[in-house]
Specification:
The structure is a single chain. By secondary structure, the chain is an all-alpha fold. The protein is built from nine helices and no strands. Helix 1 runs antiparallel to helix 2 and helix 8 packs antiparallel against helix 9. It is extended, with a radius of gyration of 30 Å. It starts with a helix and ends with a helix. The N terminus is likely disordered.
Length: 218
């Protein structure tokens, strides 16, 4: 009988505990299950967004890689870039799309159009590397349009270290456009040193050689 009473007491304790805590346990389990479901649903949504953005970016790449782009192709490219930024603005594809739009505009000698696309990338990109590329290309446009001082200002933006050699290369171009040969030479020499053995900046040595030749004949 003592054992029976002990079991009955244990059962009463369990019943009381369940009465006090059962509802919160069930609620916690429901919330946890909802959280897991919501997380997976969010992941599925993000993957779907990235996949859809990738398709449009590939279409844009196809246009950009055509030997020639006519008015129809350029209009299609702009439409794709707008779709990427309107519908998939949080993806890397949207930011890269603006860089491609600028490249296409430069190919058509539309430097104002390129500037607009690059300014959108510089202002709206969430990735520092994309922002840095946009600033570098904006600086090149400023030089091409006869504004080397503005180019130098752009090169003071927080450009990522991975693009340090490219920044120095453009800085040298800006100084050369200003007729400041000493600073141009220094920037290009530093660019070569920063570039190391990667040879990603093919052509700087030619600029230095050309600078030396001009000085020799001046």
């Amino acid at each position: 009988m003592a054992e029976l009473r002990s079991e009955e007491e244990q059962l009463d304790v369990i019943k009381r505990w369940w009465k006090e805590n059962g509802t919160s346990l069930i609620a916690g389990a429901v919330i946890a299950a909802a959280g897991v479901f919501g997380w997976h649903a969010w992941q599925d949504y993000q993957e779907g967004q990235a996949a859809a953005a990738s398709v449009r970016y590939q279409q844009l790449l196809t246009i950009a890689n055509l030997p020639e782009q006519g008015a129809e192709q350029l209009d299609s490219a702009k439409q794709l870039v707008n779709e990427l930024n309107d519908d998939y603005g949080s993806t890397l594809y949207a930011e890269l799309g603006l860089l491609l739009e600028a490249r296409l505009a430069v190919g058509q000698n539309d430097l104002d159009g390129a500037r607009e696309a690059l300014e959108r990338a510089a202002d709206g990109a969430s990735r520092d590397y994309v922002k840095s590329l946009a600033w570098l290309r904006l600086a090149r446009i400023e030089i091409a349009q006869g504004n080397p001082e503005q180019a130098l200002e752009l090169l003071d933006e927080p450009i990522v270290d991975a693009l340090a050699a490219q920044r120095l290369d453009v800085r040298g171009d800006a100084y050369a456009a200003l007729g400041d040969r000493d600073n141009a030479r220094q920037a290009w020499q530093e660019a070569l040193a920063a570039d190391g053995q990667s040879q990603s900046l093919y052509g700087i040595q030619f600029k230095l050689d050309d600078l030396g030749a001009k000085e020799a004949t001046s």
